[in-house]
Amino acid sequence: MRYTYNKERRDPQIQSYTTTQGKKWRIKFSIVIKGRKHNIEKQGFISFDAARSEKKNLLNNLESGINISNVTVREYFEAYCEENLNNGSWRYPTYKRNSGLFKNHFFPKWGSTKMSDVDRWSYQIWFTSYTKEKDFSLHTARNFNNTISTAFNNAVLNDVIVKNPIRKIKVTGRQPRNTAMTRTEFETIFSFIKSSPELSTHERTMALLTMIGLRHEEIDGIKLKYVKDNMIGVFEVLNSHSQITEPKTQSSKRWVPMTPIVEEYINRTIQESKIIYAQNKIIMSDDDFIFVNHLAKHISYNDLSNVFHLISSKTGIHVWPHKMRHVFSTIAFGIEGLNPRDIANILGHSKIDMSLYYNNGTDEGKIAAMKKIGDSF
Q: Region 324-329: what's the mean pLDDT?
């Protein structure tokens, strides 16, 4: 028989329910002890006090019965991820990214190993070999190792292990993908985006938006209410898990001015989207997305990536959405008289140094700089 359970205000982990024999109580909750998750459920108590007393006994038995030395890497790391999500330390995308990283890359080799049996030398050999096999960049390899190391640090704090076995290991990796672009390459990319018949209005608009510095998830998350005059508001994003969340940082919340061509295609996209919504018997509202499929559902994260796969294939220039943020920064910082703070604000960076990091410079820029230096001799 299915019952309706009501949480007790005195203890939400204890719920009351009504049976044909009268009111009863149950205990139901999950808890992580020494890195291991336990699901507790027991019912049939005749009073709240009886349930609370049994809960205390169960917790005492768990505390005393856990053998820390038997906790495996998989058990601890999975509990670690869930706890970070539940206590608000991680947003859902961070939880999915890190739990996926552990599951796909770390657990196949180390998942069944006891936490206390992970040793530095074996990990170093595996890590060097694995990152080389997967062709990780130095940046990716460093982030990968840091994420794993942070979980081990957490295990030290929880007395599961005595010390972090992988602290300060040697991290190597290939150089990152080249985000620089010559003026000629930029003109080729821009020409294709602007005029190629192989791009739909939606695809052309999304590609153009990367050229004014918007992030991938910021483009996917544009709603009608965030298009005003010649500005685009970035106050919600649509992440790779199709969740609507706040932007990456507080400084990422901003209004971004549009260039004339971007504004033209944004308006074209909105008009086409209104027709798509109408075809699905929906009146497009201010809270609706402007980039939608034929069913008036928001586009998937991969749609913009696929646009750039096409652009790369047709132009012979390897380009992706985030590379265009670097290109925007490079062009903007190369224009005399622009305020660096304004450029950082457009990109959604709180620090100008971050925007400068995106500025790759160009060969043409080096030649122009050397000419100016030569003229001063």
A: 89
